[in-house]
Structures are given as structure tokens and as C-alpha cells.
Amino acid sequence: MKINVEKCARMLKQKDNILILTHAHPDGDTVGCGFALYLALKKLGKRARVICADEFQEKYLRLVDGCLDMPEFEEEFIVAVDVATENLLGDLKDKYEGKIDLCIDHHGTNTEYAKYLLLNADAAAACEIMFKVIRTLRVPIDGAIANALFIGITTDTGCFRYDSTTSNTYRAAAKLVDLGAQNGLINRVMFETKTKTYAALERLAIEGMEFFDDERICVITITQDMYRKTGSSETETEAIAPLTRQIEGVEIGLTIREKADGTCKCSVRTFQSVNAADYAANFGGGGHKQAAACKFDCSVEEAKKLLVAKASEMLGEQK
Amino acid sequence: MKINVEKCARMLKQKDNILILTHAHPDGDTVGCGFALYLALKKLGKRARVICADEFQEKYLRLVDGCLDMPEFEEEFIVAVDVATENLLGDLKDKYEGKIDLCIDHHGTNTEYAKYLLLNADAAAACEIMFKVIRTLRVPIDGAIANALFIGITTDTGCFRYDSTTSNTYRAAAKLVDLGAQNGLINRVMFETKTKTYAALERLAIEGMEFFDDERICVITITQDMYRKTGSSETETEAIAPLTRQIEGVEIGLTIREKADGTCKCSVRTFQSVNAADYAANFGGGGHKQAAACKFDCSVEEAKKLLVAKASEMLGEQK
Q1: Longest CA–CA separation in chain B, Å
Q2: DSSP state of B56
Q3: Which of A45, B198, B236, B239 is deepest in the core (most CB within 10 A)?
């Protein structure tokens, strides 16, 4: 059942022992949402905990004070944040499938799996919605909460760059900076700093770029061998996918990452001509208009063939 | 004489036949300021023209409607926008030195060369100030003016990324988007799209990166030979300097570009530890806290020695 911000806030006020689920391979938006809600609930005197199938990167914990040593308790209310489908819960899916009370999300593709859903597909980040929820809860927003929310907004918009960024996004950023968000530091940590190992991986990725269909399709392949050569790892690959969009004339950018078990995952980036979520849906994936993802049980090479053929087909339909 | 926004607007209201000077090697902020002021003055029924020692890149003209075919006239009032010193006028300096009536700028290093100066060193971009001037002129802001101002703000902040970005910057962006600025398109054109030739140049630049002082100093050298090999040119090098800041641990990033006559120019990028404007001042240059530039009459190799030695010295003083 879809609900609005006021109803969502009322519901959270009435509950205690709240478990907050983030999606697997956690990004800034799901972590920012989870941490901000956790800190807000704590200020209301409630017990809460944020969990994830995968580990939170150290950079998030460093920028958001007070999110270590969350309490243990028997959960009475389960909230999923920025989680479009239960599949995205990763290893937490088995335990929590069908049991989620509330979902706060901005994905138009949300499958409405939760009992209550606060959805705004026009929000550039789930953190934009969470900001409203926390203000409606009348929790005083401190620097840590402001940082958490700013992280979600800036990462999901590629630092206020993508088309999804609206005047509301910039306005939310302005308010969060006034409330103490360390925008310069956050943007440096999230976007500017490359580790030496990542810089080496990125160089290999760029060297291996392939182009198809009059260079309207760009493919980057990241293999396990490339991780070995550079000392990098999958946790450092977030910034690779946007590289495909950067070359003049590219309309579909595909980044295929080989997993340790030989299967692979593809990140899709598109411009106006093709809807990335629709494209990824062909392979059982999903996402947004310009950024989506899907998984394959086959090798990188086989996945590439399927992906390029479908991309070609969809571009052909545009002509 | 320093003046405020109201006085600046009153002055512009009283004048006609206004010549607007931008700085040489024009960037988004000087062009955005110039074009926005030109369009605003036109709406007030005045004659105005924007000039520059160098050509405006086509991308600016494409994003800001109505800035082709500016009228010719005998100038009665001369305004410089985003020009910290008369030296930055390039080849226009000889003609206009000592004759500039009004300067609108955000550089703390402004030499107060103009008769009247509207300066706000806390503004992340001169376009933030120009936005206030145009609103005070009570000119209705249309999409073209909004685009011009948004271009200046987004380019001078590295897409809202640098420390210089304040809540006022985000707030200005929000208002400009509401007024019709095409933020997604502008950010794509300014930041995301790399030409094939630029992508090749960037690859060579990254391959040739040198590190000094425990990798706290990063140097990129761009030679004429690299332009020849890649088909790129100096007009495409804007995005190179920020690359030096992106490597973990780098505190001073230096990008030395060889000119056709064998002399060179250095772009400086720093973090907290060193003030870039102070550093560049050692070589007769200037700029902002985290971004500055200076020129050399010697070869790239000689300049590199001088630059690295001074960077080392300034980092040593921090210890």
C-alpha cells in the first residue's frame, strides 16, 4: 500500500526496535538513507540497526559519525531503504522476504513488495525522500545526519550531474550544507580520490574499451585477471561504468564485470535514446532511465554478445 | 572603488553602448557572465557586445541562444567580468588597460584595476554575483540567461564538487533550474563528453604522470608532440589539470602545458595544505585557494624543476 511522507513518519513514531535493510553491494544512497534513518530514530529514543548482505565501505563509516556499535534486539518493524526489489537484498533475501513492513524508495521499478511503500520516482535519490521523512519526524538534523543524506544525494546524481538532478535536488543540497553537511570533503572522498590500485585498473579498462554500431555502443570488460594485475577488486569498480558515457557519440555504455565464479554482472548507462531500465529488463535486471544493471550466469564473452546484440537492436528501433 | 550589487545595477541602468570584456583562454565562468550580462542588457533595450582575446568555444554559443551577431558600436562604458588582473585580458590588454569602468569578479586576488569593482571573494563563481546583479536589474531571466549563469557556476565549481561550493551555490543552481537552465545537458556537455582526440590525449597524460615527495606532488606534462600524436590541441586541455588531484595522497597537482613557441604554462591544483594562489604567486601567477595558474618563458623541463622545488619547499613548511 502506497503511503505519503506524513503517514510514513507517523508509522515510524509509533514503532520501536526497527531493523533497517539496505541493498546488497551498498551504494551511497542506500547507506546514506539507512544511516540517516538510524541516527534520527536514535534521537527519538528508539532502538534501530542498519544491516546489509555486504560490508559497508569504510568511507561511509568515516563520514557519518555514530554508526558503529548499533544495538542488537529482536526486530519489531522492518524497513527497506532504496531497495527496488527483494532480490536486491542479496543474502538477506531468504530471511526477510515477505516480512518487510515499510519501503522508502525512488525507483519507478519498485515491485511494491513491502506492506507499506513510500515512493517518489521523481526524487533523484532515496535520500531526498528520507530528508523529508526526517524533517517530518521533527528530529533536529545534525552534521552526521546531514552528511549521510548529502552522501546519498551526491552519489546517486554523479555529483549533481545527471539529468535526474532537479531544482529540488540542489535545494536539498543547499539545506543540508546549511545544516552542516561537509560537501567539499564528501565530494572529494566520493568522486575525486582514486587509490593507486583503482587508477591502474581504470587505465586497463580504458585501454580495453570496445566500440560497436558506429561507436554508439561502448563496452568495458573487467576481468578477474585485471584485478590480479592491478591489486584492485570489485569494491573499487563503482566509478568504471560512468566512463562509458563519457565518449562523444556513445548512446549505450556497458560495463561487464567478471565475478570470481566466472559469471558476470553488467552496468548499463544510456542517454536519451534508450531507457536503461527497459534495456536491462531484457536480461532480468532493472534500474533507472539512464543507469541500470543486470546479471548473467554465463561468461563475460557470452554476455557481451547478448548485450551488444540487444543494444544494437534497440538503437536500430530508434532510427 | 568597491561598490555593492545595488550600486552596480544602478550604474548599468544609466549606461548604454556597453562593451563587456572576458578573460583570455575563456572558461565557462567568464563566458557565462559575459553572455548573461549581454542578454540582460539587450532586454533593457541597450546595446552591448562581449569580446575576448581568444575565440569562444562553440559549446558555449550552442548552449546560450542569442549571443551571435552582437551589435557594433562606439563603446561608452567598459565592463570586465571574472577578470582578476588586466594581464588576463591577453591581447585586449594594450587597448583597454586603464580604461575599464566596472569589474564584476570573485577573485580575492583582484588588483582593483577598474574604476568601480563589485567583488565577492566568497562566491564560488563570478556568475553567482552576476545572477544577483541581473535580478537587481529586474530583468526577467529566461532560459538563455539561466543557461549562461548555470554554465559559469557549474564549471567554476567542477560541477558543484570543490570546497568553494557553498549552500548559496546550490541555492543559485536550484533557482536557475527553475528558471529554465538545462542542467543535465549543460553538465553533460561541460563534463561528460570527451572527444576521441581528447580521450587519446588524456590517456597519454595519465601514462606520463610523475610523482615527487612521497607522491604528495603529481606532475602531468602536455607537450606539442602529444598534440600531434593525438590530434588534440590546447583548447581541449581544460579537464587535464583536475586529474592530478584525483590520486590518493596528492597535495599539489601541477599540469605543465608546452606552447607552440616552446614556453609553457602551469595549472596548479591543491588541497588544504597549500594555497594554490600563494604558490602560483611565486611565479607571477594567481588564482584561487585550490586552483591557480602561472606562466614561464622557459622550457617545460626547466619549469618543472622550478615548480617541483617550490612545491617541495612549501610542503616542507607544513610538517
Answers
A1: 59
A2: P
A3: B198
Q: How many CB atoms lie within 10 A of CB A35?
A: 32
ipTM of the complex: 0.75
Q: pLDDT tens for residues B272-315?
A: 779 999 999 999 998 888 889 999 999 999 999 999 999 999 99
Rounded distance between C-alpha atoms, residue B79 and residue B98, angstroms: 12
pLDDT at A2 over 80: yes
CB contact under 8 A, B194 and A245: no
Q: Specify whether the backbone of B25 is left (phi greater than 0), alpha (psi in -120 to 50) or beta.
A: left
Q: Is A62 on the interface with B (CB under 8 A)?
A: no
* Residue B62 contacts A, CB cutoff 8 Å: no
Contact between chains at B171 and A171 (C-beta distance less than 8 A): yes
Task: Provide the pairing of β-strand B48-51 with B77-81.
Answer: unpaired
Query: CA of A239 to nearest chain B CA: how many angstroms apart?
Result: 12
Of the candidates A303, A314, A319, A312, which has an alpha carbon nearest to the alpha carbon of residue A217?
A312
CA angle B95, B101, B106 (to 5 degrees): 100
Sign, Cα dihedral of B206, B207, B209, B212:
positive
Which one of A164, A165, A192 makes the best mutation probe of the B interface by having the most chain B beta carbons within 10 Å? A192
By C-alpha distance, which of A298, A276, A274 is closest to A285?
Answer: A276
